[in-house]
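pasting for the record
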Amino acid sequence: MTIEQKFSAHQVPEEYRVRQATNEFKDFAISWWTALASDGNAPRSWAELKVAMRDRFVPSSYHRDLRKKLMRLEQGDKSVHDYYSELQKGLMRCSIVEGPEDFIYRFYSGLRQEIQVIVDYKEFNNVNQLFQYAMLAEKELQGCDKQGKYKTSNTYMPHTGGLSKASTYRVPLPSSKQQATSGGATTPKSTTTQPSGSGKNFVL
């Protein structure tokens, strides 16, 4: 909460704001204020004190840097709501008051391209209408993304060849072992051959 907001929340009268603010000074700020008071140059009104503090403590490049940041401001990864809020804060910090058309153009030009494409088909006369259309476009795009992810996750992907992880490959057994493992089959007798005198083989 800024000091201006505190004054408004507690309804501090204008004539007491200088004293309330200077009571919060610390370190170099209190030394600066004491020196001003000793020289008789202490601001008497809240408006004068704000100018004096800005001239003493705010670098000369501060506002220039704020304007550069505002010029480069785009939505990017931010939501439409966050981008709009940051844009408003930037204009206030730079003390820029834009006309309706200029503000519409600034806000529109910083939106993401896919949102610009959708709001291009809408008719709007002020920045509030454009903001509402941009919010709706963002929700529409988020819904399309969710549907696309759901369809992708539920799409059947056929196997293109090879064995699946659940299947196993078994080497076919020899015919003799296949008969031994089949039900009711008897183990075949082994055969040996011995040479005879006639040169013929007899099976034992």
